[in-house]
Write a structure and sequence with these properties.
Order of helices and strands: HEEEH
Number of helices: 2
Structural class: mainly alpha
Largest sheet: 3 strands, antiparallel
Strand order of the largest sheet: 1-2-3
Distance between the termini: 52 Å
Number of strands: 3
Helix content: 55-70%
């Protein structure tokens, strides 16, 4: 992994949206315990897939909340 990729992975880990208390970064690790992504080791395709899954779940939950509120 080159320096630029590592820098981008660190920024993505730090700013991806989960609560800072869920982030584990000791000893150079870049993990999130909420979304279960290892930003240091997981492939870019896997991180992209997880972001899509998480976004889709948030969207579906908002639709469900709106549907329940309209009843």
């Amino acid at each position: 992994m080159n320096k630029d990729e590592l820098t981008l992975r660190k920024l993505l880990w730090l700013r991806h949206g989960c609560d800072l208390s869920a982030l584990y970064g000791d000893d150079g690790e870049l993990q999130c315990h909420i979304c279960k992504i290892d930003f240091l080791r997981d492939a870019v395709d896997y991180i992209n897939k997880r972001f899509y899954e998480i976004g889709l779940n948030i969207y579906l939950e908002s639709i469900e909340r709106d549907w329940i509120l309209k009843k």
